């Protein structure tokens, strides 16, 4: 299977180097299988100083056995690595920098490690190449960031290296291909190695793409990042969810969409079977989703609202529920889900009507960022889905509905909705004069400010006050006034002249709840189809198995 | 490998229906292997009226055995199919509509069939869903256009259905995954079925994703779409290529890029080793490419200009050359290339500095289309790569160089260059008052005009007259004047006041050859590193094997 042509050494330096490295650990390998105990020695031989190393680091799935091993290699032998990681999530990811094993970092997201990245950057211990969106980072793996070594995680492998990823396929295929097809080295940790290929439920990545598999000391870590406990949803979230349904989804006929991770959007999911049903909207809106398998979507699925959900990643506890609903979710012949972040981000960028998300700070023009002082979170997929993709050509009712001119060359627009409470918990205003990100960018010497979503891509701002239909703004001044009109008692909102609110309402540029037929008195938790995680389990007929930290029973 | 959980029939209708269809042809199948002679009967049983069917139809690779078989099914039994095709290229693709087997078409490109599609549309025999970019169409396969059946082509398969695509992997993985993981049916034609899995050079798509493989009556058709004969490159192309190098690539430090298919860009490729070398630009520009393996890139590769090329598809005759240059191209352990249109389009959208292409018509604001009267060509990948991706966050020198404000929130811009001669062969002006596409869109009842690239995404217009630096335009009026200034003796150019040219030059908004140090006298064919296909073969050391129609010896 690996017959090599006779190659001119001048044109096959990468392959020669790869074979040199593979040969150097031949004594440690049984075909593609490495022993668990040999992993540190193997990594030390397979990786060279200055290499570009992809470490998986996804939003949920973590190749944590490999990252814990990588930290143990000798920095006097292997150092100055350039790490490429979709998501920086684990302490050892940054230990690599403190130990001098790694030097440069290109990444897309850093949830739990965002404070420490910021600190290491200030201390000169870590150098950031750039903060990316996920797909942008994958794209560079095939252009100017081709990796030497790729370290990933799967569920099972056979002794030929065939890999079964389980539900959490996530970023793995896009990361592996970049090395497998440019003479890089691919190493996969798995929870189990099976002797008989027929014992693999299915193959997600062929063995001919993978150099080594190694059984991890314990199953890979998976973070339940998309589970929102309905108990924490407040009446204000319900009010905003009602406005989203009437003032955005119903009004523009939003049929395909992506939801962010917050309680706001969880509230929308949970009132579809109650409030949405009452409005007669089932089958008319919210049919096709690009979304992680949110537990809060279970009642809408069970009530027949949802035709399809394609997933970026999996969600811990949702495996059996997803497998039991193959008409809705993407599952393989073996019955388990295959998620795929690259394809789902592509779909979320190009094929859905609407992206709705939240942010920590938004300025008066609608620019937003999750980067605040001392916190370098990165953006994940938001900038990719939260912009109007200029390459889109197919029309849908929602997309066409945002055309505001009679220019014969006019095109539709993706709906990008910022759904924010005007204040964060702790009394910090969400809507601010200037984003912290501007100063952070300057102080960190970034060539551009780390903006998550640019104001000119935002079509709607939805707060507890109302909705600003920004796509209708005819000038920057008007856009500012519209945002200020729904900015409540934030400094931006306080500068707003209340007299102009009436005119903005009359012109249809903003709408208050009553303008869209939303009754504030109805906005109570009783509209939630599930009020607790236990309710979600009941809706799922016991198929959803929430992680321990979400169980109160 | 295919153990099924006990599923609630209400939630597994797709799977039940799939199993019903598979069972109906159990007598025709030997595991996943179908006999060549049974294909029409099998398709007739596996496809139902009204199904969404993906037929591969790519830019180059054609599942032509399957399309020829599909045309033979009985339209009284199977009809009203909704065809989804990246590229409509073969006569039988449209025979499907004339025979009533298919009714609706969603597609991205239609080269040779563009006239006939237009005719069938007018005659009411074919209904167009939308014209897409490639990635947009893939995205919809996971959202609102999930296919029931996917018909693809590969090079070899084994008796477990494992698929080796050869160099022309192209769209196949993105198409197959959409059906394999939503209980659709996947059928692959191959040139050869091998008994021993070890006889597959590598696996591109695992057998557990594929339902049936069938040996085609003859090898799949592959169109050499990206081969440009250097003999047809004219001095004016050389002049424009010189301007591109000095006025765009050198000026903005373009390091990563995509080239279109025309003689203009072929000329750039061919003068890198001569003109580019003389300017000392090697290693400074044009290092990382997203590109089909253009034969005209061979001299630049051989001269050491090119670090990497990731390919959308393959190119007939380039197989051995590509396999012999693994440091440059993406090849597998077996030594042959794996192209991947989805990933390459992602890279071409998000990871490269520049897209440069040509068009049939451009209006005075820079809007362009290849759709002209009577010709519905579609757009392929151009709209995807020819726009500024709003989700991009990583900086490169070229991207940053296009910032024209001191706004602290400013971001860079992708370079989108339209490189056009002011007149087409036959004396038709390229730069026109109004695009034909506007009328075509109206007459065909399209909800938006079929624009390929929108003017506000175009950063540079390059004609034989000079370069308009559109990204510097401060108003629509100024943009118009800049384009008119390089529009030559087209109607748009004739209305231009020559007096204003001097001011535009002085302000650096446009540049004539002399302004960028380009000597018109040097613009001769003698700058071409290869002047014929035979020269390309020589450069390649005999590795490039041009198709017969490009051989004159």
Automatic annotation (TrEMBL), chains A, B:
One GO molecular-function entry: acyltransferase activity
Protein keywords: Acyltransferase, Transferase
Matches recorded under InterPro entries: MadA, NagB/RpiA_transferase-like
Superkingdom assignment: Bacteria
Enzyme class per UniProt: transferase
Gene3D superfamilies: Glutaconate Coenzyme A-transferase
EC number, UniProt record: 2.3.1.187
Protein name (record): Malonate decarboxylase alpha subunit
């Amino acid at each position: 299977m690996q017959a090599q042509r006779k190659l001119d050494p001048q044109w096959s330096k990468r392959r020669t180097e790869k074979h040199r490295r593979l040969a150097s650990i031949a004594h440690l390998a049984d075909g593609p299988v490495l022993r668990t105990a040999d992993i540190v020695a193997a990594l030390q031989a397979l990786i060279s100083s200055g290499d570009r190393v992809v470490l998986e680091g996804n939003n949920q799935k973590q190749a944590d056995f490999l990252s814990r091993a990588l930290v143990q290699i000798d920095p006097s032998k292997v150092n100055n690595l350039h790490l490429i990681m979709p998501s920086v999530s684990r302490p050892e990811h940054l230990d690599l920098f403190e130990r001098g094993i790694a030097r440069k970092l290109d990444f897309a997201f850093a949830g739990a490690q965002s404070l420490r990245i910021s600190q290491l950057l200030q201390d000169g211990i870590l150098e950031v190449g750039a903060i990316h969106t996920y797909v942008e980072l994958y794209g560079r793996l095939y252009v100017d960031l081709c990796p030497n070594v790729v370290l990933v995680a799967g569920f099972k492998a056979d002794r030929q290296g065939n890999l079964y990823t389980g539900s959490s396929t996530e970023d793995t295929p896009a990361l592996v291909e970049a090395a497998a097809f440019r003479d890089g080295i691919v190493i996969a940790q798995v929870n189990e190695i099976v002797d008989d290929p027929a014992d693999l439920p299915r193959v997600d990545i062929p063995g001919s793409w993978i150099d080594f598999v190694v059984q991890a000391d314990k199953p890979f870590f998976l973070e339940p990042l998309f589970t929102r406990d309905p108990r924490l949803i407040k009446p204000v979230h319900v009010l905003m969810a009602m406005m989203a349904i009437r003032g955005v989804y119903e009004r523009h006929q939003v049929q395909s969409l992506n939801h962010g991770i917050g309680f706001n959007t969880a509230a929308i999911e949970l009132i579809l079977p109650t409030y949405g049903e009452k409005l007669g909207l089932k089958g008319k809106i919210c049919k096709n989703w690009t979304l992680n398998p949110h537990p809060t979507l279970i009642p809408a699925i069970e009530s027949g609202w949802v035709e399809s959900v394609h997933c970026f990643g999996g969600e811990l506890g949702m495996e059996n529920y997803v497998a039991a609903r193959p008409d809705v979710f993407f599952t393989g012949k073996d019955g388990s889900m295959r998620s795929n972040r690259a394809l789902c981000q592509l779909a979320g960028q190009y094929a859905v009507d609407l992206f709705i998300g939240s942010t920590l700070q938004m300025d008066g023009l609608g620019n937003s960022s999750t980067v605040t002082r001392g916190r370098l979170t990165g953006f994940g997929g938001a900038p990719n889905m939260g912009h109007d993709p200029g390459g889109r050509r197919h029309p849908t009712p929602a997309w066409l509905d945002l055309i505001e001119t009679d220019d014969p060359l006019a095109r539709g627009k993706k709906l990008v909705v910022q759904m924010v409470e005007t204040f964060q918990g702790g009394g910090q205003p969400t809507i601010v004069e200037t984003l912290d990100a501007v100063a952070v960018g300057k102080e960190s010497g970034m060539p551009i400010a780390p903006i998550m979503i640019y104001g000119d891509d935002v079509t709607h701002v939805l707060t507890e006050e109302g909705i600003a239909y920004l796509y209708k703004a005819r000038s920057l001044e008007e856009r500012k006034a519209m945002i200020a009109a729904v900015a409540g008692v934030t400094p931006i909102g306080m500068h707003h002249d209340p007299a102009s609110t009436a005119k903005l309402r009359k012109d249809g540029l903003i709408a208050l709840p009553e303008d869209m037929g939303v009754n504030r008195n109805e906005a109570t938790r009783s509209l939630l189809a599930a009020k607790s995680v236990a309710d979600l389990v009941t809706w799922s007929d016991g198929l959803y198995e929430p992680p321990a930290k979400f169980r109160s029973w």
